[in-house]
Write a structure and sequence with these properties.
This protein is mainly α. About 50% of the residues lie in helices and about 10% in strands. The longest helix has 21 residues. The protein binds glutamic acid (GLU). Glutamic acid binds next to loops.
């Protein structure tokens, strides 16, 4: 049987989790789940200056919010830990020792100035790209003496002279070739003993028995170097899958300038985790070329590396809005109520205790807004007039709706009709208003607009009859009365 799939997401905690990184995490996670494999979270915190605890916490929080769970990682542990790269120094040292022993790593004592001079010569035209391997030619005894004397040095990879081109089958890009001649004896370990990215990553991937490396194609040029290190360590080379970048609509790398770029920014804009997860999954992958709604359960059972696209992905905010709206519509009202409460509370509307006492009211509200909100952030503004005692009246809307000189008379009639209704529910309210329109010889649409502005304070609102029901009869009557005065005021200034 094939080895179980082991994949990792290895973010550097140097900033917030970008949606590009999140997409890489989604693909790794979905692939592991699909294959019944293991998804590992490793924190590549070797950049001491820019890595922070807060960034790590935010990355974990963002992934958790998206619904991505990991089987091994910094917080959950696992048999291949530690899962912070800086805590793996011992493993990096041991790997270097193995390479020293098998001759695939050598110390280089060239100073920065010497290297700079070599580069200048190379530029002037001796044709050799990269390090000229001066220290690779040193006598073993000379090396031993200089090491014993404590002379500053780095450790370089001794690229095998007869290695030939580096060819690998990328799971996304297909056969990928790097010319042997371009491979430099690059640095594995710096003078201070810290490993470079290409060395630490391979040691960790090898020790963690990673079978597939799925990551952004900004790392493509590192891959041949990493393959050489796997070979030098005599460890199996994993399968690589390089994902194309995510561009903003203007063809530039997606950044905050486009509106949002980090997972938490999208969260704060009112996107749902499942919708963002779905959107990111489809940003460069497809289930069958047409299905757009791919919930996590489907992703976990259907994801495949074969269906990842080679082409750059363009982030389309309108499509994400559409998708988020679809997820809001499809949510169970109970779940939507729970999701929307914090948004309402942030806007100073509603409360958990009110939710307890008016549960059905909240459920009805959820059903009403579900049809209209594309983002969670839109719900409070849409629903404000249903909560407050007296909504603000938009003067322009009042001016327009109450311009009809019969508006005052209509409002009075509606008030009477509402006051005398036997039952207060959307169907009864609608029936009353429709028959009133006939009596008043108003087009129903016109009458409804007058009432809408009166009860919501605005020319656009959630559906009228449901709104009136949710506002409650007492408040509706009060608002109709207040609107009558507004209409009368407009009437008295008319013709002046
Ligand atoms: N820490 C690296 C990054 O965030 C990991 C790259 C890799 O997956 O090898 O880009």
């Amino acid at each position: 049987m094939a080895d179980p799939v082991r994949v990792r997401f290895a973010p550097s905690p140097t900033g917030a989790l970008h949606v590009g990184g999140a997409r890489t995490a989604v693909y790794n996670w979905a692939f592991a789940r699909r294959k019944g494999g293991v998804f590992i979270l490793r924190i590549d915190d070797t950049d001491a200056e820019r890595s922070t605890k807060e960034n790590t916490a935010q990355i974990l929080r963002s992934l958790g919010w998206l619904g991505i769970d990991w089987d091994e990682g910094p917080d959950v542990g696992g048999p291949f830990g530690p899962y912070f790269q800086t805590q793996r120094a011992e493993y990096h040292r041991r790997a270097l020792d193995r390479m020293k022993a098998n001759g695939s790593a050598y110390p280089c004592f060239c100073t920065t100035e010497e290297l700079e001079a070599k580069r200048a010569t190379a530029r002037a035209g001796d044709g050799h790209a990269g390090y000229d391997r001066t220290c690779r030619r040193l006598e073993a005894s000379a090396v031993a003496t200089r090491l014993a004397a404590g002379e500053a040095h780095v450790w370089r990879l001794a690229v095998p002279v007869d290695r030939g081109d580096i060819v690998f089958a990328d799971a996304v890009r297909g056969r990928t070739v790097f010319a042997a001649g371009d491979m430099d004896d690059f640095v594995l370990v710096r003078p201070d003993g810290t490993p470079t990215y290409n060395f630490a990553t391979v040691v960790d991937d090898a020790d963690m028995q990673i079978t597939h490396v799925v990551r952004g194609d900004d790392h493509l040029s590192n891959t041949p170097r990493q393959i050489l290190v796997f070979e030098a360590l005599d460890r199996p080379v994993p399968t690589f899958a390089h994902l194309s970048m995510i561009w903003g609509p203007d063809g530039k790398k997606l950044s905050k300038r486009h509106g949002a770029a980090s997972v938490e920014e999208f969260r704060d804009m009112g996107f749902l985790p499942d919708a963002l997860l779905n959107y990111l999954a489809l940003l460069g992958w497809s289930l069958d070329g047409e299905t757009t709604i791919v919930p996590p359960e489907v992703l976990k059972t259907q994801f495949s590396l074969e269906r990842i696209s080679k082409n750059p992905a363009i982030f389309d905010f309108d499509k994400l809005d559409w998708m988020n709206g679809a997820y809001i519509r499809d949510m169970e009202p109970e779940a939507l109520v729970a999701r929307m409460l914090p948004w309402l509370e942030d806007a100073g509307l509603g409360s958990a205790s009110e939710l307890e006492t008016r549960h059905d009211w909240y459920l009805a509200l959820a059903q009403l807004v579900a049809e209209r909100a594309k983002r969670m952030s839109e719900i409070a503004p849409l629903a404000r007039y249903l909560f407050v005692e007296e909504p603000a009246m938009d003067p322009a809307a009042a001016e327009k709706a109450f311009a009809n000189e019969d508006a005052g008379r209509a409002l009075a009639a509606v008030l009477t009709a509402c006051a005398s209704l036997d039952e207060w529910n959307p169907a009864a309210i609608e029936a009353a208003l429709r028959s009133l329109a006939e009596v008043l010889q108003f087009k129903p649409k016109v009458l409804f607009q007058v009432v809408r502005v009166a009860v919501s304070g605005s020319a656009v609102s959630l559906p009228l009859f449901e709104s009136m029901w949710l506002i409650g009869r007492e408040r509706v009557l009060a608002r109709l009365e207040a609107a009558q005065s507004v209409a009368a005021g407009l009437d008295s200034t008319r013709g002046l």
